[in-house]
């Protein structure tokens, strides 16, 4: 599995949170960080899109993180991950930069996934996604990390 993300995560507290979940993931999630684009907002998105497209492995199931995408609950996400893997298409998640994702990425993506209607900073999205991937693996494994209790 791969995560292609715009921006270098430097903050130690953010890195520690990503590492907390990353080290537990099986299969592992490789994070590919790409430099922020330069120029006007449109140029930034276009340049970042070129780099993102080049970093997507062949055969992967591409999931663009986008606030207008489809919102899953954690169990549905876990089962979707299982289906992609079973089909031999390892997930490749994409997180945009400050300007968001270029339309070319949304066109290339096999799915667009939302973490809610609000706009989140990309580094927080990275942390939340890695936690949800770990939660998905816990759900599939029947690990008690995920408690399904609801009112
Ligand atoms: C700061 S946001 C970009 C905001 C940008 N104005 C836009 O409209 O996408 C950076 C990245 O974080 C991700 N992101 C932010 N909020 C999200 C949400 N609610 N659901 C899914 N991804 C989100 C997206 O990949 C986005 O490109």
TrEMBL record:
It catalyses: pseudouridine(1915) in 23S rRNA + S-adenosyl-L-methionine = N(3)-methylpseudouridine(1915) in 23S rRNA + S-adenosyl-L-homocysteine + H(+). Its main location: cytoplasm. It is an enzyme of class 2 (transferase). PANTHER family: METHYLTRANSFERASE, RIBOSOMAL RNA LARGE SUBUNIT METHYLTRANSFERASE H. Belongs to the RNA methyltransferase RlmH family. Homodimer. Specifically methylates the pseudouridine at position 1915 (m3Psi1915) in 23S rRNA. This is Ribosomal RNA large subunit methyltransferase H.
């Amino acid at each position: 599995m791969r995560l292609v993300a715009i921006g270098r995560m430097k903050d130690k507290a953010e890195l520690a949170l990503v590492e907390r979940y990353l080290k537990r993931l099986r299969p592992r999630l490789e994070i590919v960080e790409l430099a922020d684009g330069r120029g006007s907002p449109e140029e930034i998105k276009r340049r970042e899109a070129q780099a993102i497209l080049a970093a997507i492995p062949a055969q992967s199931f591409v999931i663009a993180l986008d606030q207008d995408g489809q919102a899953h609950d954690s169990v549905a996400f876990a089962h979707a991950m299982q289906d992609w893997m079973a089909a031999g298409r390892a997930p490749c998640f994409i997180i945009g930069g400050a300007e968001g994702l270029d339309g070319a990425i949304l066109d290339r993506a096999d799915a667009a996934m939302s973490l809610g209607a609000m706009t989140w900073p990309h580094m927080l999205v990275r942390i939340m996604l890695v936690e949800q991937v770990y939660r998905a693996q816990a759900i599939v494994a029947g690990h008690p990390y995920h408690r399904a209790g609801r009112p």
